[in-house]
Predict the 3D structure of the following.
Amino acid sequence: MRLTRLTLFRALLLGVLMATLILPAGELQALAQAQQPPPPPQQPDKQEKKPEQPGEFAISIEVPLVTVDVVVTDNSGNFITGLKKDNFRILEDGVPQTITNFSPTDAPITMVMLMEFSKLGYEYYAYKARNAAYEFLDQLNKDDWVALETFDLRPRIEVDFTRDKQEVKQALARLAFPGFREANLFDALLDTLDRLQDVKGKKSIFVLASGYDTFSRHTLDQTLKRVQQSDVTIFCLGVARDFFEYYDARGGYGGPGRLSYYQAENQLRAFAQKTGGRAWFPRFDGELPGIFREVAASLRNQYSLGYTPANKARDGKFRKIKVELVGPDGSPLIVVDQHQKKVKYVVYAREGYFAPKTAVGD
């Protein structure tokens, strides 16, 4: 008996219906999924994080390491070498700290010579600063890095960091006539500190200037605060004392002029003192070679100390640092000379630092 097309269609439809009634639901679902095309693969979420369980949280605290570079000399200016970690004690706001890092630093010097080059003092200060900078370069070793920055109304980079001392000498020789009578010392010093902020290792600024500031946008207080926040050692050479004393002895300075000079000198002294550096104010050119040797030797005879502050508060407040020398029993260290006589000594270190401050919302 032959089936018509309609009869065949009805038979197929009846078979599908019977299969639907007979097969379990799970097999039907599997059959349906097998007949559908597979979904496209999902890209993994790179930012997917493990879900936190109830009550779980994480705290991340940045613990600062405070680094203090220390130089120790006797009263005659001779450097005291051979000291050990146990010979040092650091106090922060009067509280003893645990020194975790210690090393005598003999790494190459990284220095910016910041030189006043203005028409102040009838261009005499510029002349003195340029000649002094030229002579100081002979104290640097072949592995030392040096940059030259000048300032009058604004700072200018004459030579970026280089080991080629001759390149710096050529730049100094090209400096002929200052452009302005202004000497914006504060702005220039802050600009230099900003440039050194990301430089690693032992770094310093050698300021060769009169100390006067005539037109800066920043104040002395702002500059001193920024100096204290920095880990840069500042050395200062005042180039105006002989000029001042010559004219003052001849009545060239009245009371206000004399006070202005003393203020300029004190500003240079403060920059050095707050960073563990030193300041010199020579009267005669014959003093310069010895000063230059002291600057270089100070950097080559530093002890580098590091500690994690016991005070973990992130309050942005100033923390005062004091470095002492101690003996094995914790009493003040006694230093003797070759004749076994007690020698008084001076410890040069920065006065303190500003603690990091927690931002609002942290």
